[in-house]
Specification:
alpha/beta; Glutaredoxin; five-stranded mixed beta sheet
């Protein structure tokens, strides 16, 4: 019996992608595929070049795309930050020791405020990891070297669990002598079922994309990637068929549930997440019965699309619970 295709890395964090692009990533599955393809074509990090300075212009290439090859650690710092001057040299030392098992991306928050805002950085130094386009929480402040090594080991373990082949992360790690540099980790096997669904999505055939993602779920009811992709496709289809004037019309018809749902979809597609959530929460408090259930289900879809790390999700969930109970 042939082994089941391995699941590909999860889509990029919606909150991160939305803030970096200026609009919420409704086609995250397609974006994931394109980023993985770019990473496969890009050269592996050159020997000795395991620390990169990242700007807003290079964030996509050096962080998101590169994270499909190897884990990327983000070191957010500023020139005036004294703890940063303690932490950064140690991270650079560990990156050099790892010899390409992971990449350190340093980001000057003063020079790149949009990145800092996107990541919702409260203080520096702050460290995150990115694996397969997915943001992984890290830590704030300067840690001792022993704890930094533990963090790096945990990141590499997470990358392996996500299907990424990573090399050793210690002083014994050496570049591949055959090509004179660090060998690019093998990309996780592609899942042809996702390829077919994403192709339909790329062609704008939302119905076919939905059918193909649904077929994956019929075979694997717990496939989280297919579940998220199906929600995204359905949102894309709703937005494509929505009246562009629905948001303006909804203000004059607060009890029209269909109009309120359409207006919320358009708000979410336009990266006005607060308006989308608050509009549905207000509607939830005005309606009952089947209409209330429709609004509740749509809110839950939004929560899943945004992801648990989005700071707006927790308060909105609590407000929804108060309205329902």
């Amino acid at each position: 019996m042939a082994p089941a295709p391995q699941r590909r890395p999860a889509p990029p964090s919606a909150a991160l992608t939305a803030a970096m692009s200026g609009a919420i990533d409704l086609a995250a599955v397609k974006a994931r595929s394109e980023a993985a393809a770019r990473a496969a074509e890009a050269p592996a990090p050159q020997a000795g070049h395991y620390v990169v300075e990242v700007t807003e212009a290079t964030f996509q290439t050096e962080v998101l795309d590169r994270s499909f090859q190897v884990p990327v650690l983000l070191d957010l710092w500023a020139e005036w930050c004294q703890p940063c001057k303690q932490l950064s040299p140690v991270l650079e030392k560990l990156a050099a020791e790892a010899a390409g098992a992971w990449i350190l991306a340093t980001i000057d928050v003063d020079a790149n405020p949009r990145i800092s805002q996107a990541l919702q950085v409260q203080s520096i130094p702050t460290v995150f990891a990115v694996i397969g386009g997915q943001l992984v929480p890290g830590f704030q402040g300067a840690l001792p070297e022993a704890q930094l090594r533990e963090f790096v080991a945990a990141v590499l373990q997470a990358a392996q669990e996500a299907g990424m082949q990573v090399g050793p992360a210690g002083p014994g790690a050496q570049p591949d002598a055959a090509d004179g540099g660090a060998a690019a980790p093998a990309a996780p096997p592609e899942d042809p079922r996702f390829d077919a669904a994403e192709q339909a999505l790329a062609e704008g055939n939302h119905d076919l994309a939905e059918q193909r993602f649904q077929a994956i779920l019929d075979a694997e009811p717990n496939n989280a990637d297919a579940t998220l992709a199906l929600r995204q496709v359905r949102l894309l289809r709703r937005v494509a068929g929505a009246d562009p004037a629905a948001r303006a019309r909804a203000q004059a018809a607060p009890d029209d549930v269909d109009l309120q749902l359409a207006a919320a979809d358009l708000a979410l597609a336009g990266d006005d997440v607060d308006a989308a959530l608050q509009g549905l929460l207000a509607t939830l408090g005005r309606v009952a019965g089947e209409d209330r259930e429709r609004v509740r289900v749509r809110l839950v879809d939004y929560f899943d699309l945004l992801g648990p790390d989005d700071p707006r999700v927790g308060p909105a969930r609590r407000e929804m619970a108060r309205a329902l109970f």
